[in-house]
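cache lookup: miss for this entity combination. No prior model stored, computing from scratch. Input as submitted by user K.M.:
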Amino acid sequence: MLSADFGNLERDTKMIDRSAAQWVHIDVMDGVFVPNISFGFPVMKPIRKATSKVLDVHLMIVEPENYVEKFVKAGADWVTFHIEATQKSLECISLIKGAGAKAGISIKPKTEVSALDGLLDKVDMVLVMSVEPGFGGQSFIPSALNKIRELDRIRKERGLEFLIQVDGGISAANAGEVFEAGADVLVAGSAVFGAQDPEQEIIKMLEA
Ligand code: ZN
């Protein structure tokens, strides 16, 4: 939703609700963890009201342990936080799950998959950032593909079931390659909202 028209949030959410997309992805930024501020709790409400699809909240905020439960109460079905943003990853995961949502953990482009040691069997999803978090409209960083492959290999070797989500610079041009590397969930912003026919663009990505 970061690339939606905030003056027409209900209209844009309803478009996603009608489309082939399965989840609505909400990027929350605090101006501290990332050099940008997006939106907070009040914006969750109209989005939650406008769609029955899965609400997927991506927290780019410091000390997420102080906020995760409030996001679940505001309607999030999934809450993902950044491992770089907290010393309390295990606490975050149990707070999210305890509040009744699925828990995801994210790594920025410069963070290695090995940083997730000891957490992969506890999360429902790993979000691989394929751009530096903070802004929409950036180009996909190709090294993300190696991380996706590595996570997919670990998941198979250890019989784990976490989903692999990829966020940043996704379009119909690279969606096929990203799925092929092992990703399950692709996040797209500007490629969708910048398209002449957003609903058609979503179908193109899913069929890539
Ligand atoms: Zn995101």
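stored under new cache key. Residues 21 and 202 are 6 Å apart (CA to CA).
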